[in-house]
Write a structure and sequence with these properties.
The structure holds two protein chains of two kinds.
Chain A: H1 2-8, H2 18-74
Chain B: H1 13-30, H2 38-43, H3 49-63, H4 67-91, E1 97-101, H5 104-107, E2 113-117, H6 119-136
Antiparallel strand pairs in B: 1-2
Helix pairs in contact in B: 3-4, 3-6, 4-6
Classes of the chains: A mainly alpha, B mainly alpha.
Chain lengths: 76, 141
């Protein structure tokens, strides 16, 4: 993204023409779209990681629960 | 309650419409109303690209102390903010998004408190939201 904007820096130093204004507006809209997609993707990956973690956390307690259960039955 | 509409007599109603649609699409995708986001209000006080950069960096530093990620952030954030700020200046007053909200003091009089956001400020708020989501997305493993 930084390379894209570094190249655009040239256009900030000249007086904008009507055509450039159209292009500037399109760029701003596209940037907003990219931000929306990136935010959604990261948010979704966080949600799915959280789900995996909860599942694994539950899973990790299972052997201990079984062990305690067996211990109780054995009178240990 | 919020909605965006042309600020005063917008010289480029198409710009206004296009950007409004993009903002609605953003809201649909992320469930975030950028105009109502606290960061957008904070960014209103920024009157230069360096002030915007400082605010975004402070926000990141509050949540993430890593120097490496800070340097990486500066690398792409600097040109992004500088160019968008300049572009927003070029668009001038033609595009402005008005956020209407009731505040407690005026609610009973039926008055509204309004703020006009430039497209760049809205985008910077979007950058801030992305950074927040990115930082809070820490793997629990």
């Amino acid at each position: 993204m930084e390379f894209f904007f570094q190249r655009l820096q040239v256009y900030t130093e000249v007086a904008p023409t009507p055509e450039m204004m159209d292009m500037i507006m399109k760029i701003m809209v596209e940037v907003l779209t990219i931000l929306a997609i990136a935010t959604k993707e990261i948010d979704q990956s966080r949600t799915s990681e959280s789900f995996v973690y909860e599942y694994t956390a539950v899973d990790r307690t299972t052997p201990r629960t079984i062990s305690e259960e067996v211990g109780r039955k054995d009178g240990r | 309650m919020s909605h965006a509409q042309p600020a005063a007599a917008a010289s480029s109603p198409n710009f206004q419409l296009i950007f409004n649609n993009a903002l609605k699409a953003y809201e649909r995708r992320t469930n975030n109303d950028l105009l109502a986001h606290p960061l957008a209000a904070q960014l209103q006080a920024c009157d230069s690209p360096s002030a915007v950069l400082l605010m975004l960096q402070q926000q990141v530093q509050e949540l993430n102390q890593s120097r490496t990620s800070d340097e990486r952030l500066t690398k792409w954030l600097d040109p992004t903010v500088n160019v968008l700020y300049a572009f927003s200046g070029a668009l001038g007053e033609g595009v402005g998004l008005v956020y209407f909200t009731t505040c407690d003091r005026v609610r009973f009089t039926g008055s509204f408190y309004s703020q006009v956001f430039s497209p760049a400020k809205v985008i910077f708020a979007g950058v801030g939201v992305l950074l927040l989501v990115r930082i809070t997305c820490v793997s629990p493993f």
